[in-house]
Amino acid sequence: MKTDAFPYRTGSGTKKRLCLFLALITALSLLPARAFAQTNGLQALSVNPYGGAADAIDTVFWYADGDARFLFLPADADLSKATLYYTADAPLYIGGKKIENGAVNTVIKAPGVYELSCGGKKQTLQVLCSENLPAVYLRTESGSLENLHLRKENKEKADIRIYENGEITVDETLKQIKGRGNSTFYYPKKPYNIKFDKKTDLFGMGKAKKWTMLASYFDTSLLRNPYGWAFADAFGLDFTSRYRHADVFINGEYLGNYIFCESVEVGENRVEIADLEKANEDANDADPDSCPLAGTGKGGTVQSGRTAGSRKWAQLPVEPADVSGGYLLEFDFAARYDDEPCGFVTKSGQPVVIKSPEYAGKKEVNYIADLFEEAYEALESPTGVNSRGRHYSAYFDMDSLVNMYLLQELSLNYDAGLSSFYVYKNAGQDKLVFSPVWDMDNAFASQAKKYGAHLSDSGIWWANCIEYHSIPTVLTAAYGHEDFRAAAAARWAELQKDTVSEKVNAQMAALAESVRASAVMNGIRWNHYETMDPEAAAGAWAQEKQRICDFVTNRTAALSTGFGDKGVWVRYDKNGATGDNWGFPHLIRTLGETLHVKDPAEGLSLTPPTGYVFCGWNTEPDGSGVMYQPGDTLQLTKRVIFLYAIWKTPDEIEREKREPYCTGDVNGDRDIGALDARLALRCSVGLEKFARGSAQFRAADADGNGRVEAFDARLILRAGVGLEKLA
Predict the structure, then answer these.
(1) What is this structure's pTM?
(2) pLDDT digits (tens, 9 = 90+) for 152-169
(3) Fewest C-beta atoms under 10 Å: which of 3, 23, 596, 615?
């Protein structure tokens, strides 16, 4: 019985048949799928909202997400004039009406759901239309975003066309478009920088070559950066970016709502200070960016973000005679600092990028770094005065420092003083000015938790207590000074008298209404709300918008308490320990309340000094004040309380266990006498300090009531002469 369906034989006839069979299979596999089916149905659909051609820059393609199909249209789309284009193997019907390819639309009358039928296959198309906003169309030279998304440094030319209220206001070719951002570049919706060949006005914001497109991927409300900028304006901070929301289409694909805003750079309609970068270009035949880089990091490298006191610069052949400014500086994380050409790291370890001039010469870097070191030395000093005898207010513009602190505290911006944090210095100007405000999409209750703090909790202190790599931020260091705290409280009172928060909330409510329809489209496009239903997406967006408004209201009330006459600020000091992102934000409290002292384990990472272990908290850095253990109740009797971590070696701890002070033996010499009584008496009047809870404190507390008083000294003296017997 033959069991082989196809016997493998070596005869020539069989071999020929096998070869023919394999050739047929190979040929069939190369044919398009439609050769085996009646039709694939509808493969692509596009609309030109203005009646233009299929290959026009402003033609919009449908968006597919699984089986769902969406058509996202701009606010000024005139559906009665729009032209429809499609790719299919059979005629297309929309709502039962046959559609001619390239014909003027007569079936899509308004946003809604439409039934598509092609080759016996049916689909639904959800049509959504924006409102109020301009539409921006970009077409890259390659016709793709693939290369731009590989690396931020990649760039290419692109055409750009902008419609406002149905009118074309920009129709140019960009010199370049490229990715931008730090962490935001690595998320699905990318931010971009665009640059024109010549200065161009966008949306009435003034002429400039460079513009920034913020993706707001983290901010589903699309309102957090505008909130930050609105408060910056209200607080009087300089050079706050102007902006405009717009719907963006790149290579025919809807990419959502973007915020077009002024780039943070030195120049007209930007940070308007002396342009030292231009002075460098004028002084040198070669472009500064072509000059080699040098630095004082390990091995003379410029990747030195973790090398305290290091500097890096461009080796300019010639530097201007006047290097006093202008400088635009940005505080940033060490890893990001390493990606920048020029900057310096303070002796305490704070990386500072020189954004302008981007390629600064050695003399320029040394000038601004030396100035900054003097300023930081004063700020970090307990007295606020540096070794030159100058107060930190001689270096920092105090109005801008106070206003910047208040904005960062109000917004609970988790990058406060850490990243995207700008300072400038103008030529001939003595002081460093804190401005402009930037990158607030992670503020206003955006983050549930960061650096060990609940940043959606409107009732915590934040910007006055955070650190990074054991370095108190400039805001934390400033708040440690009584004069700064007084200035911040006074300024806050002024702002609340002017009802600033209420005014900003009202301003943002009007803005929110203008972006509502676009926000829904954006939310569906990027699946922010895990729903494809426009009504559900609108509801989710409205809740997020209201959450920000409520946060601002509640946060304002909490800070009014904190800055008020009874507000309390507690600062936990590591006192020699190290660790990344370590700080203890805590609830805003008032006088008379109690709190439970924190455990260091609540910090993200705390590394004790080498050879030491944590032994508790003390009100004095040398351990001579009141001692508290984690979990102890602390009575808030003062508006400002410093708690210092106390570190001891294992040998010290063991020695204390072996040689305890007995009651009355205050000096630990195993004898009770007049000297012990004298020490107890001095402690009772504040001339000696024993850490509360320490063995010495317990020895002096002869009656065991938790206090060292004159009565204890009397008891010890009597015990020394045998008139009392102590436990």
Answers:
(1) 0.85
(2) 999 999 999 999 999 999
(3) 3
